[in-house]
Design brief:
The complex is a heterodimer of chains A (120) and B (108). By secondary structure, chain A is an all-beta fold. Chain A is built from no helices and eleven strands. Classes of the chains: A mainly beta (120), B mainly beta (108).
Chain lengths: 120, 108
């Protein structure tokens, strides 16, 4: 079975940094693009970032996080990461790791999410 | 950015009834790259439909998708108790890969 398990969420002050991780199993991680999607409290889903499979030439970001967040991956560890800097109150959300599919941007499997809370 | 608008915001129906959910895009979605996801509180979302009308693996045939261009529909025939959830459309034709704001399907 495809499994995506996020970790690294927590409480952080505005301006702070955090790194989220997503451990995967049950599929050939190196063959799939990967995404991060978030959901702020009481709000809908917001796609925030995508990274393609080898050789990592494509990384895409929503305007809301561009320049502050960096997506990366480690194929040897079957893991996806999201490096978050200059965090703001509005970054408070549950962050989901999501596996891509044959079409860039199509999400075929989701993790259960990890909560990031930004407050002073 | 391609803005997706879903309607209605909330749909109140009973098990056994038919649900029709709408998703309208502000721009034509290339290749009809439109997906529908189901999300229950505290759970991982689940892909239902991709390419506007293709059911994902393991999705029951009471779920169907239709539409093209800017107007898309998710239909659930004969609602089951486990179908009550929030449904999101998502376009993956162009970055940023936007979601609609969701339709909450609740028990009447």
């Amino acid at each position: 079975d495809v499994q995506l398990v996020e970790s690294g969420g927590g409480l952080v002050q505005p301006g702070g940094s955090l790194r989220l991780s997503c451990a995967t199993s049950g599929f050939d991680f190196s063959s799939y693009g990967m995404n991060w999607v978030r959901q702020a409290p009481g709000k809908g889903l917001e796609w925030i970032s995508y990274i393609n499979s080898h050789p990592f030439t494509t990384m895409l970001y929503a305007d809301s996080v561009k320049g502050r967040f960096t997506i990366s991956r480690d194929n040897a560890e079957s893991s996806l990461y999201l490096h978050m800097n200059s965090l703001r109150d509005e970054d408070t959300a549950v962050y989901f790791c999501a596996r891509g599919s044959m079409a860039r941007g199509l999400i075929s499997y989701w993790g259960q999410g990890t909560l990031v809370s930004v407050f002073s | 950015e391609n803005v997706l608008t879903q309607s209605p915001g909330t749909l109140s129906l009973s098990p056994g009834e038919r649900a029709t959910l709408s998703c309208r895009a502000s721009q034509t979605i290339s290749n009809n790259f439109l997906a529908w996801h189901q999300h229950k509180p505290g759970q991982a979302p689940r892909l239902l439909i991709y390419g506007a009308s293709t059911r994902a693996t393991g999705i029951p045939d009471r779920f169907s998708g239709s539409g093209s261009g800017t107007d898309f529909t998710l239909t659930i025939t004969r609602l089951e108790p486990e179908d009550f959830a929030v449904y999101y459309c998502q376009q993956y034709g162009s970055s940023p890969y936007t979601f609609g704001q969701g339709t909450k399907l609740e028990t009447k």
